TrEMBL record, chain B:
Belongs to the ABC transporter superfamily. It holds the Pfam family oligo_HPY. GO terms for cellular component: plasma membrane. SMART domains: AAA. It comes from Brevibacillus centrosporus. One of its GO terms (molecular function) is ATP binding. Gene3D superfamilies: P-loop containing nucleotide triphosphate hydrolases. Keywords: ATP-binding, Cell membrane, Membrane, Nucleotide-binding, Transport. It is found in: Cell membrane. It comes from the Bacteria. InterPro entries: AAA+_ATPase, ABC_Ni/Peptide_Import, ABC_transporter-like_ATP-bd, ABC_transporter-like_CS, Oligopep_ABC_C, P-loop_NTPase. This is Oligopeptide transport system ATP-binding protein. CDD domains: ABC_NikE_OppD_transporters. GO terms for biological process: peptide transport.
Length: 328, 320, 309
């Protein structure tokens, strides 16, 4: 990976706060800090994985990048422009290059539309194709994702979950995007189908030079497909490193616990896990200092008061912890 | 011990739909001993959940158990009257579900719901039921049980709700616990907590457990024995160590190979081609043959039986 | 070893074999499968036929009085006359002919009032749900205001001010019924708006108009139709009630409600004058509701597949 080249996408100080009223008659306003100051870059052709548990804000990040949500603060630089400040027509152009694959293939396709219209919709909006040209292009896209001409006039419900996900991928590919955000793209699929889709994503990346932001809670899938991985906890990145470093020598105790919590499909490897105590805190009232201190086995008094900054540990690894773990 | 705790023989549960009969569970047999954890694995639609509902006699219309035998402590559950079955449910056999939010009634407090179990099955009064509820919450690792007992379900997190469900299920010291995807809706770190809890309770009370899951990781972590289901049938049945070390059915090996690994990095995953067949149009011969890399002409014609591959290891394949 | 693509294609081919029939035959197969739908369609077809060809079917002039033949019983009763199969009313007018002509008013009022209500309520519901914010607040508070006033009172006031006529009746019923549409459509739009396919469409740069008309609108049609059928039925009943109170269509135009009103005084002695228009109203309302249920099913793409298996 060439880190010296300019990144394809750069996120700076990204925040998304949701205001809520404290109590029915109170005018005092609180904020759910869904995303609380993110900085990261994405290089051309790589896959950045974003993992974390529910409420960590990983899905919000995807929607912010695609401008489905408006950021409260921060910048999203793509092709020399901050996409969060673009006007309507510029944004439309930027969207050619930023696409998304959704989690649930049952809800991400309009049940009333035929496959030809679903996959062809972006072309209808952006290109001046004749009907015949558009159909040809749609067929080409369907072939690319392993579907066939027969499927053109079908409705989504006539397909299995895996096939629907393929349709969603074909739609995302229609405009030759640079970046595709995969938001839990394989989480709802059965094991055997999940591997088909992961292979397809990998194949498309190799053939088309795509860049992925792969958001998921399932660590094995993220590990399989990502070059670098960001771990999020309650709206913040607690660690970001290339895949092998992250798995071999995590610096943040949360990363380590997360890795340890994944059940390994081998009964001979039953092991003593790091079992984190307690629940995920409420994102509307995150703990003071380091958000993780309430569950952290290594927490010290300073963790309750002072929020740790992201520190670099060489090789592109960064982690936000006052007491980073030593390499084993 | 004369009997196994639970012996299911040739269970058949069919759903009669407008378009034909769907044999969701098609001749399933397995057994569970006291204190044993049996995992049933398979993908969506393989019939694993319907199997568990059949044992509980909770299959809803248009589904119906049409054949087989379910011996629980030597007694055929399918021959019990409704009333006797109700007495058994929640008392000797209990169940926890995937979604802890929808399995708890949102308008009642935890005390109400957990206490109800004691009031029904042990005929305790309100005060005793409350005491027992608190003790039970404590046992499943809920901090501050005296306070939590007065909470409504929405005041609890997903993991806490699942703990409450487990408390309810274990309230009467059941001999058999059926857990249908108990951790699928939970976050990884919470899943680890719940699995640990289930393991310790299983050890402490010698409860037989049927764990239904799609996650081979959870299976490897929890199970003593494993039953692999595909398209309404058992395709493999073995001890957990034997199964993972020596998988015989191509579907089992396919599932294992298609998992992304935590400990090694592959460029491409092996995957099982195609998708699960339409239950109304089951392939002739072996149900798995259209997706099977080892399939031969015989597989399209002859239906394989579940046969002993070696002691304690059954496989349904012509090519073992 | 086969590739996933090949096996999937193979599956599709087998599925296709089952699906080889035109939409018209699908229509009839689905209709036949639904007995209720068949009954509804037959009833409504009959009523529309009768209304359109009233002049040719009706045995008598519906407004021609004949005092010598007043209050004749139906033909199968003693003193009945086969010229007047359902008997005559207090002015000697043929009940059957009046019911035949009365269907015109019922259908016109039912259909146009609902079209008006659906257009206003559907549009406001869409706008309210999609844009939200202050637009939503204004529309929904208006809806609340309308709901707070008893609709019968509102109808009576409007009719009193504007004077009873067919046009005012339609207007009145439209104005009092749109709130149902607005509320239900708004709720549906709110849930549709959060669906991933709407987000997906937004990520490919679709305009608001495109999202509303190609993604949201088709997915709220089934609710729209359910509300509409109930509303047509309700409008027909409202028309009858208002005509019964003398505020509906005015004589000499015949309406079922008016007939009920006329027959009221003779219920004890000549029950047929009020009973037959009552039965006509009931059958029509049932027919519309049956038909509506079935249309909703046909429009659902999932049902299409089921019907073709």
């Amino acid at each position: 990976m060439a880190l010296d080249t300019a990144p394809l996408l750069e996120v700076k100080g990204l925040k998304k706060y949701y205001p809520f009223k404290k109590g029915m008659f109170s005018s005092e306003v609180g904020y759910v800090r869904a995303v609380d100051g993110l900085d990261f870059t994405v290089q051309q052709g790589e896959t950045l994985g974003i993992v974390g548990e529910s409420g960590c804000g990983k899905s919000t990040v995807g929607q912010l990048i695609l401008q489905l949500l408006e950021p409260t603060e921060g910048e999203i630089w793509f092709q020399g422009k901050d996409v969060s400040t673009l006007g309507k027509s510029e944004l439309k152009q930027a969207r050619r290059n930023l696409q998304m694959i959704f989690q649930d293939p049952y809800f991400s396709l309009n049940p009333r539309m035929r496959v030809e219209d679903i996959v062809g919709e972006p072309l209808k909006i952006f290109e001046r194709y004749s009907k015949k040209e558009r159909r040809e292009k749609v067929v080409e896209l369907l072939r690319l994702v392993g579907l066939d001409t027969h499927h053109l006039s079908r409705h989504p419900h006539e397909f299995s979950g895996g096939q629907r996900q393929r349709i969603g991928i074909a739609r995302a590919l229609a405009l030759n995007p640079k970046i595709i955000v995969c938001d839990e793209a394989v989480s709802a699929l059965d094991v055997s189908i999940q591997s088909q889709i992961l292979n397809l994503l990998r194949k498309l990346q190799n053939e088309l030079g795509l860049t992925y932001i792969f958001i998921a809670h399932g660590l094995p899938a993220v590990k399989h497909i990502s070059d670098r991985i960001a771990v999020m906890y309650l709206g913040r990145i607690v660690e970001l490193a290339d895949r092998d470093t992250l798995f071999a020598s995590p610096k943040h105790p949360y990363t380590k616990a997360l890795l340890s919590a994944v059940p390994i499909p081998d009964p001979l490897l039953r092991k003593e896990r790091i079992i984190l105590q307690g629940d995920l805190p409420n994102p509307a009232a995150p703990p003071s200092g380091c958000h993780f201190h309430t569950r952290c086995p290594y927490a010290q008094p300073v963790c309750e008061t002072k929020s740790p900054e992201l520190m670099a540990y060489g090789g592109g690894q960064v982690a936000a912890c006052h007491f980073p773990l030593e390499a084993e | 011990m004369q009997h196994k705790l639970l012996e299911v023989t040739n269970l058949q549960t069919h759903f009669k739909t407008e378009d034909g009969v769907v044999p969701s569970v098609n001749g399933v047999s397995f057994s569970v001993s006291r204190g044993e954890t049996l995992a049933i694995v398979g993908e969506s639609g393989c019939g694993k959940s319907v199997t568990s509902l059949s044992i509980m006699r909770l299959v809803a219309s248009p589904g119906e158990v049409v054949g087989g035998e379910i011996l629980f402590e030597g007694q055929d559950l399918l021959k019990l009257g409704k009333k006797e079955m109700r007495k058994l449910r929640g008392n000797k056999i209990s169940m926890i579900f995937q979604e802890p939010m929808s399995s708890l009634n949102p308008v009642f407090t935890i005390e109400n719901q957990l206490g109800e179990v004691f009031r029904i099955h042990e005929r305790l009064d309100k005060k005793q039921a409350r005491q027992k509820s608190i003790a039970m919450l404590e046992r499943v690792g809920i901090p501050n049980p005296e306070r939590v007992v007065g909470y409504f379900p929405h005041q609890l997190s997903g993991g806490m709700r699942q703990r409450v469900m487990i408390a309810m299920a274990l309230a009467c010291n059941p001999a058999l616990l059926i857990a249908d995807e108990p951790t699928t809706a939970l976050d990884v770190t919470i899943q680890a907590q719940i699995l640990e809890l289930m393991k310790s309770l299983n050890k402490a009370y010698q409860t037989g457990v049927i764990l239904i899951t799609h996650d081979l990781g959870v299976v490897a972590e929890m199970a003593d024995r494993v039953v692999v289901m595909y398209a309404g049938e058992v395709v493999e049945d073995a001890s957990v160590f034997d199964l993972f070390a020596n998988p015989q059915h191509p579907y089992t090996t396919g599932l294992m190979k298609s998992l992304p690994k935590m400990d090694e990095q592959l460029e491409e995953l092996d995957s099982i081609t195609g998708s699960v067949p339409n239950p109304l149009e089951m392939p002739k011969g072996c149900a798995f043959h259209p997706r099977c890399p080892k399939a031969t002409v015989e597989c399209t014609q002859i239906k394989p039986q579940l046969e002993e591959y070696r002691a304690n290891h059954l496989v349904r394949c012509l090519h073992t | 070893m086969t590739t996933p693509i090949q096996t999937e294609t193979a599956q599709i081919v087998t599925v296709r074999k089952r699906k080889k029939s035109g939409s018209l035959s699908r229509f009839f197969r689905l209709l036949w499968k639904s007995k209720v739908g068949t009954i509804g369609l037959l009833i409504m077809a009959a009523i529309v036929f009768v209304a359109v060809f009233a002049g040719a079917i009706a045995p008598h002039d519906p407004v021609k009085t004949n005092v010598s033949k007043r209050l004749l019983p139906p033909m199968w009763l003693e003193k009945g006359n086969s010229d007047y199969p359902l008997g005559t009313d207090n002015l000697g007018r043929d009940v059957l002919s009046r019911i035949i002509y009365g269907s015109q008013v019922s259908l016109i009022v039912g259909i146009f009032a609902v079209m008006l209500a659906g257009a206003i309520g559907g549009l406001l519901g869409l706008v309210s749900g999609y844009y939200g914010g202050w637009i939503d607040a204004i529309i929904m508070r208006t809806v609340d205001a309308f709901l707070a006033i008893p609709s019968m009172l509102l109808m009576l006031i409007i009719l009193f001010v504007m004077g009873p006529s067919l046009g005012t009746l339609i207007f009145t019923l439209g104005i009092t019924n749109w709130v149902k549409y607005a509320r239900i459509i708004r709720g549906e739009v709110l849930s549709m708006k959060e669906r991933d396919f709407v987000k997906a469409s937004r990520t490919v740069g679709a305009s608001d108009a495109r999202i509303i008309f190609t993604h949201i609108l088709p997915n709220v049609t089934s609710s729209f139709i359910v509300v509409s059928t109930i509303s047509v039925a309700a409008a027909i009943i409202s028309e009858a009630s208002l005509s019964f109170l003398g505020l509906g269509v005015q004589p000499p135009t015949v309406s079922w409600g008016g007939m009920l009103s006329d027959g009221r005084q003779y219920l004890a002695t000549s029950w047929w004058v009020a009973t037959f228009p009552g039965i006509a109203i009931t059958i029509t309302v049932l027919g519309i509701i049956f038909l509506g249920d079935w249309i909703r099913d046909v429009l659902d793409p999932k049902m299409k597949a089921k019907g073709s298996k």
